Amino acid sequence: MDRNELLAKNRWKVRYSYTCTCDPTCYYEKDGRHTTTTFLNGGEQDQGTEAVADHLAQFHKQEGVKVEEVWQETDAERDARIAARQREAADEARGIWWGMGGAN
Ligand SMILES: [Zn+2]
Asked: Ligand 1 centre from 61 Cα, in Å?
């Protein structure tokens, strides 16, 4: 599977919270916890939310990770993500001028 195929797949996302370890504790976070959303990689969604939580905690070095929701992108979300990525790539290409047009 090449990079473009990988990007074109609907990816799995996770929303989770974790303990605020900011010093000083940030006053704007609810109940001393941060909430964030990120992508899952390589089938983690099939291993259950506890495995996902463990992985997030290790990968991001966060404490008290609690998975709120795991879901797969809708086609619209996927398309928006790909479009954003293509705009970025186009901006870079303009800046660096690789001259690699033609493929699209
Ligand atoms: Zn914080």
From this structure: 14
